[in-house]
Design brief:
The chain is α/β, with parallel strands linked by helices and 432 residues long. The chain folds into 3 domains: 122 residues, Rossmann fold, CATH 3.40.50.720; 195 residues, Dihydrodipicolinate Reductase, domain 2; 65 residues, no CATH class. It is 36% helix and 22% strand. The chain has 16 helices and 15 strands. It has a 9-stranded mixed β-sheet. Helix 4 links the parallel strand 4 and strand 5. Helix 5 packs antiparallel against helix 15 and helix 9 packs across helix 15. It is globular, with a radius of gyration of 22 Å. The protein starts with a strand and ends with a helix. The structure holds nicotinamide-adenine-dinucleotide.
Length: 432
């Protein structure tokens, strides 16, 4: 197997997760360039992969002009940059491993697909959950046909409040206007993807959806609360007080301190305290300029009559992705966090049903590798393993998600947003 070479565009949180594969599996992947506007992130990339200065670029155009040869460019820039940067990369003939969501606009999604076809390039979307031992086991059970066809798929995504506040209330995904993605697309295009992938004997047709921002609203702020927590009369009792939530607990430091433009590990407490006095991360969760919903449900009817539902809730006390698939002759049930899949079949002799438990705890660990590649229940590691195999011409695995496969999951998200805002049912076939 040939070693795959990659460049990483956007060496932030995600870019470094994927790049870490090169250090854990040096026979399989090497990083040949880092492209990032941030000086400290370029320097981090230089150290991580032992690069020379001529392999570092502070903008994409400079990289494109340098005509660097590599098998794939990992595009791990933020959502709103995906379209422009991916089109440029495809124009130059690069294969792209593209972070999800592809884009918030249907015309851009279709244009990327068309450009990839024209240029005969691959665009592989980072729907990392597909690659986990957990969901690929479920896919194998579905595809084995032993339970018959899917009648109903129920998915729940409960986003833990530490994650939700740091990413979606105070964080960089809080504004659809700025980042180009609403909550559903940013958080759950993974789940709409799972729904379409698991049920890919058919295609989604009708979508309805409800949801709103009802928790993190001004109306829920305690009386007299101020915009910034450091001067708020409720700071000793409010669980979201930034001093407690961001400084002491420091749940998601890679998000919270990113706009200090320094590696967060090097920040002093005083620098963090000062930052919270002027940044969104120091603001009241009920007053911050968040323009996305904090809960949403989506219903999908497929062409063969099967139906799927997705419940997305932000701010839950415990994180959890739950799945329940009901097929003609049995069911598949589980919480991904438990690493156990229950395969339930009819049992007419003794009890009403029989549960077979598939314990995936050992599979969860990607092996003796750095933690940075075991994220997403092992999906961050396994997508890279799959990418290396795929670019070596070993064909697509059951999980490989080329751009065509990502279209339906994204269309469901766009349709759900229309359905939610306009209180209508959207027909994907006539709408897009
Ligand atoms: N697959 C998943 O499950 C998953 C999980 C989290 C985030 N994401 C997605 O991954 C993407 C990246 O998220 P992140 O948290 O790593 O973001 P990040 O902010 O940590 O990283 C983005 C990087 O891009 C760099 N950058 C900004 N402008 C640039 C430019 N003009 N040219 C080059 N570099 C530039 C920034 O300096 C930063 O280093 C987003 O689209 C996000 O939605 C996917």
């Amino acid at each position: 197997m040939k070693k795959i070479s990659c460049a990483i565009l956007g060496y932030g949180d995600r870019g470094s997760c994927y790049g870490a594969y090169a250090n854990n599996e040096p026979e399989e992947l090497e990083v040949v360039a880092i492209i990032d506007v941030s000086e400290h992130r370029r320097q981090k990339g230089k150290e991580d992969y032992n690069l020379q200065d001529h392999q570092l670029f502070d903008n994409l155009d400079e990289f494109l002009a340098a005509n660097i040869t590599c098998d794939v460019v990992i595009n791990s820039t933020m959502d709103q940059m995906h379209y422009e940067t991916t089109m440029k990369l495809l124009d130059k003939g690069y294969n792209v491993l593209l972070e999800k969501p592809v884009t918030g606009k249907v015309e851009e999604l279709l244009a990327i697909r068309q450009k990839a076809e024209e240029k005969n390039c691959e665009v592989i979307v980072c729907h990392v959950l597909r690659y986990t031992p957990y969901y690929s086991t479920i896919k194998q059970v579905v595809d084995s046909g032993r339970l018959g066809k899917i009648m109903n798929i129920q998915l729940n995504e409960h986003v833990w409040h530490g994650h939700f506040v740091n990413a979606f209330v105070r964080g960089k995904w809080r504004s659809e206007k700025e980042c180009g993605s609403g909550l559903l697309l940013a958080k759950c295009c993974h789940d709409t993807d799972l729904m379409c992938w698991l049920n890919n004997v058919t295609t989604p047709v009708f979508v309805s959806s409800f949801g709103s921002k009802s928790m993190y609203t001004e109306a829920n702020a305690p009386e007299g609360a101020t915009q910034y927590c450091y001067e708020c009369p409720h700071r000793d009792t409010c669980m979201f007080n930034a001093e407690k939530f961001e400084l002491e607990k420091d749940f998601c430091p890679q998000y919270t301190w990113a706009d200090t433009h320094k590696p967060w590990q090097e920040l002093t407490e005083e620098e963090k305290r000062e930052f919270l006095k002027k940044d969104t991360y120091g603001q009241c969760v009920y007053k911050v300029d968040m323009d996305i919903v904090d809960r949403q449900c989506v219903s999908v009817e497929f062409a063969n009559g099967s139906v799927g539902t997705l419940n997305l809730v932000g701010g839950a006390s415990k994180a959890g992705r739950h799945i329940h698939i009901i097929c003609e002759f049995g069911e598949i049930v589980g919480y991904v966090e438990d690493n156990k899949v229950i395969v339930r079949t009819f049992d007419q002799d003794e009890v009403w049903y029989h549960d077979e438990i598939l314990d995936l705890s050992e599979e969860y660990d990607a092996g003796d590798v750095d933690n940075s590649v075991t994220g997403h229940y092992g999906g961050d590691y396994h997508i890279m393993k799959d990418l290396v195999r795929y670019l070596n011409g070993e064909g697509t695995s059951v999980a490989t998600t080329v751009i065509q496969d990502s279209v339906n999951s994204h269309l469901i998200c766009y349709a759900a947003e229309k359905a939610r805002k306009e209180k209508v049912v959207v027909n994907l076939k006539t709408e897009y």
